[in-house]
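Dig into what follows:
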Amino acid sequence: MYGLGLIQILPGPVHLVVAIVFDILILGMFVWMLLSWFQMMMPISPGNPFVRFVNSLVEPLVDPIRKRIPSTSMGMLNIGYTVAFIFAWWSLGILALLILQALPRGW
């Protein structure tokens, strides 16, 4: 299996790079969603280097979606973050699949 296994790919170096990039983005979004939950339970400083890295990786993808979804919370679950994560995960998966299908076999 190539990549991190989240996206199925054909063998080839370009396919591998595309799959790894999209896998890292999807994992980054998952960590971002978990951090949003943890920030409600225990205070995590937004100035923390790890939190800043994850935010800089994920915010450009999720921020337009999150701005259009009202911020409502149900206990410790922030619905806006969760819906933004699910939609961005779905759209990244579709985009990766389209890119990988467009690449010639063996690239």
